[in-house]
Amino acid sequence: MDAAAEAAEWFIGVFQLGGEWFVAVAGGILPTLIILLTAVNALVSFIGQDRLDRFAALAGREGVQYTFIRYLALPVVAVFTLTNPMCYSMGTFVPERNKPAFYDAAVSFVHPITGLFPHANAGELFVYLGIAAGVEALGFGLGQLALRYLIVGMIVIYIRGLVTQFIVDRMSARREAAAATA
């Protein structure tokens, strides 16, 4: 009977800890996220969805000169304005052959943006906050960490977009060559 009582206490204890965690989050980061989401939605409304769509269509144009827009600017704007996972829908404006590289760039940016703009991917916030706690314990500020995450993330997503596009182009060329010889 004691084992059953201990198990019941443990079971309820798990939910009590969950409740304590919820209250801590509801009083901490949750109001910040709600206000930030409201501000970003207001910004998108002010800019206009049609302007964002035209920008995305610009990124979908053919040519090397558009790779900067396609694999850097568009993923950054998409993740910031639409957040994860809706940001991937901006890929509809990108030509079919560029979609894998756009997706790779966008999905790679949902973590680096979290330090400055936690609304973009609240699921990644807990990863960032864990790292941030370690950085703060060492006596460093979070502003520099967040900026470095953002800058390095932007460099990485551009490189990933280019590399993924190169791989897709090579695989497509091989498939077309194999189909031509068959």
Sheet having the most strands: none
Figure out the total of helices. Answer: 7
Task: Report the helical percentage.
Answer: over 70%
Please tally the β strands and state the result: 0
Terminal Cα span: 74 Å
Ranges with pLDDT <50 over ≥5 residues?
Answer: none
Strand fraction equals: under 5%
Please compute the radius of gyration using only Cα atoms. Answer: 22 Å
Give the overall shape.
extended
- The H/E string reads HHHHHHH
Average the pLDDT over all residues and give the rounded result: 86
Structural class: mainly alpha
Give the SSE map.
Layout: H1 2-27, H2 29-47, H3 49-59, H4 67-82, H5 99-109, H6 122-137, H7 142-181
Helix pairs in contact: 3-4, 4-5, 4-7, 5-7
Summarize the structure.
With 182 residues, this protein is an all-alpha fold. It has seven helices and no strands.
